[in-house]
Amino acid sequence: MALSRRTRAQQAAVDDEAVGLQQEICDEITWYMREHKVSRADLAGAMGVSPGRVSQILSGGENLTLRTLGSVVAALGARIEITLSPLP
User: Fold this and answer.
1) What whole-number distance in Å separates Cα of residue 83 and Cα of residue 68?
2) If DSSP codes are grouped into helix, strand and coil, which group holds residue 39?
3) Which pTM was predicted?
């Protein structure tokens, strides 16, 4: 069954938002690491994964699950705060 033009547009908007959110989260983690002088190797050690896995996570190229995000945040000894606001 073909999707309507409106449905395709809505799906595209959701996909764009998800990609933007993923990138924003990765940027925030990278900023936090830089500010607190945590290297990717340090983070990998704290998470019990390889530095390559940390690079995969922070590249923004994969679907970042809440479980993975929780693991990163716990390893950094940090917390995430989320604010939902209306579009301008």
Assistant:
1) 20
2) coil
3) 0.81
